[in-house]
Amino acid sequence: MKTTLSEDLYERAARVMVGGVSSPVRAFKAVGGTPIFMASGRGSTIRDVDGNAYIDYVCSWGPMILGHSNPAVVKAVLAAVKRGTSFGAPTVPELRLAEKVCSAIPSMEKVRFVNSGTEATMSALRLARAYTSRTKLLKFDGCYHGHADPFLTHAGSGLATLDLPSSGGVPGYIGADAITVPYNDVPAVENAFRLHGPEIAAAIVEPVAGNMGVVVPEPGFLEAVRKLCTQHGSLLIFDEVITGFRVAPGGAQKLYGIRPDITCLGKIIGGGFPVGAYGARREVMQMVAPEGPVYQAGTLAGNPVAMAAGLATLSLLDQETYRRLEDRSARLEEGLKHEAASAGLQIRINRVGSMVGLFFGSKEVRNFEAAKGTRFKLYAGFHRSMLEEGVYLPPSAFETLFVSAAHTGGDIDRTIESAGRAFRKVPR
Ligand code: KE4
After folding, report:
1. Which terminal Cβ of the chain has fewer Cβ within 10 Å, N or C?
2. What residues does 205 pair with on adjacent strands?
3. CATH fit for domain 4-69+318-423, picks 3.90.1150.10, 3.30.70.20, 2.160.10.10, 3.40.50.2000
4. With a 6 A CB cut-off, is 239 part of the ligand 1 pocket?
5. CATH 3.90.1150.10 residue spans of the chain
6. Cα 126 to Cα 112: distance, rounded to the nearest angstrom
7. Cβ(347) to ligand 1 under 6 A?
């Protein structure tokens, strides 16, 4: 596979952009080789600047649930652009997306749009602290909630990829307010509340963890966090930036029947444009300016073009689409397991809907420690082999493979065949 143009471009990019990228995980640090410059995408396929085609399982880290350049989304965006790109004023697309999100997400009576998942979780924590007049935050090892200071200790995604226990530049007093416990560990949550309950403003959790690979909530885990938050007057924040409209139309809270106090969204609701959102029942959201004292603002929040892309995307996410996503993702899971077994390689697959996590090793992965205890260093070679096969996987063992509605049965079968060859190259 020739990638000379990517290599030349990356050398140029590294002179003016830190790490040659706009987000660390894209730098291929964990998998080696040169990041690939993508030129175009259509459906499940993306093409790089050298003309190589790949079946895409990054899907822009989640937003592209319909695949790339979906005709309806493109049409809606072009029409919106022609009407003007930004007014800094209320618009009908913004209102329509707000109504759609609030009607789909059980916990959301009111919503505020922002420009990223980071802004959504940052604002949700500020709101929870104001609502409870408390400061402490309970979070879970290996979850990732964006790059706002309070969330950057023991986090997943790029920090896990780069093996960073926390970020530089975050003052100690910020970290002091964070209590981090293992995912799926109910006794640890109970203990945290026993010790700090009256000080805990909020617990924030990815209801399906997608930033340490995929880790699935065990029966009773989310229910226990919900119960303890209620008992101690803390707010439960569901970070559904990945799971929102991914694992079900109403997100993980619909799938698992748990009602959080605040929900954060992003990715899919922007249809590939910068969007985030946070929402809750009215009596919580009324604390946000201009109705209440919690200040949060944004020049491009509710941008009409992004809203149009989100609306077009959500309007196509019907039951048939979710059924197809489930069918293709289940087929991928079974095929990968079969090929690994045929290659005499031990892998674990954690999956919820079209969120697929692949781990090298035999042990169950139920938290971040277990994820770090897998043979994750084998992932780099596997990633490289799959690139050679024309399959684009996340360049990190601590991310999620996303299946889109555009992935055909043929794509899945080809991926499985490619994985069979790639597994055979993995050193034992
Ligand atoms: P953004 O600020 O990147 O839009 O969203 C932050 C965020 C919040 N919550 C969850 C559960 C998330 O997964 C994310 C961002 N996800 C990462 C990858 N898993 C984005 C990719 C990147 O950082 O480049």
Report:
1. C
2. 238
3. 3.90.1150.10
4. yes
5. 4-69+318-423
6. 13
7. no
